[in-house]
From TrEMBL:
Keyword annotations of the record: Coiled coil
InterPro entries: MATH/TRAF_dom, MCC, TRAF-like
Domain of life assignment: Eukaryota
Name of the coding gene: LOC106770043
Coiled coil stretches, renumbered: 267-308
Organism of provenance: Vigna radiata var. radiata
Name the record gives this protein: Uncharacterized protein LOC106770043
Amino acid sequence: MENQNTKDKVFQKFTWILQNPLFNFPNRVAYSRKFTVDGHTWEIRIATNSPLKLIILVGLGRPFRCEKIANLKFIVINQLNHRRNVMKEIIDTFTSICSPLVEIYAPGDGFIVNDSCIIEVHISVHKSEHEKQVDESVRNIDNKLVQSTDNLSTKKMISNSPGETVDFRGLGKVDNDYIPFLEEVCSRYPSLIDSKKRYIEWSFTTLGRVLHFLNTKKVREMDDDACNHLQTLWEELEKCEFDLSWLKPQVQSALGMKTCVEKVLAVKSLEENVITLEKDVTILKENISNLKTEAKTLKTKMFEAEVKLEITRRELVKAKEGFEECDLEAELIFVKP
């Protein structure tokens, strides 16, 4: 991994060497090791749905409360001729809930050498003006906190119980000492509250997707694609900081339905084969029965023919007794008067 960071930009290049690439195994997913860019964990997921066609998903490995606009460049390396590298570049908005998909088609030789494929991902994240303002605001708050702490009287410090928490705008419990500073920042930058609300919306949207999946899918529909889709939804939902202990058994049961479906289909297939074979056996038995009847008839005819043959032979012997042969082609002698 390489990085070239500046004041306003965070850049890193991630190189991933896939051993035994997925091109020959459609609908399988490979995960890269996680890496950090701009203080957040990122992860690459790659799948294939046809030969030499990659579907790449680059997303955040843990939830956060703001959007990231990043410039990404994907390069599939041609190991025989780098001039034939396949590249695709996008600029998109990333969150822990929503990450863009990129499709890359890499035809020809050189992309898989010695059962390995090399993929480079260049990630460039620019800090937004809002992030710069928030950073500056946080620094100012730190300075004010130091100043205000120095000016606090002993009486005021004693009046606030250490560790006392209060509800902050319905978003959660916060230490009472931090409330004035949070109120000041949120008043200046309402988008901080909006980001929290958007994060909550994303979380419940993801939960809704999982619940909708579980309540609309049939058991027979739980094939590889459906299981992979549910697994992806579940992984996203696990990042939303919900207590999912009540839902996890149902999701695991649904993911296990693929094996159940395969067994049911295998049993049905065997049952159909048994029915077909039983019909074949019945037909063959009928044919054998017909052949036996026909053989019996032929034996009777053969016996009758043998009897007739014997009678005819005896008649021939009797006919030859005292028989003189003559030339049937000889001319009759005609005597003139």
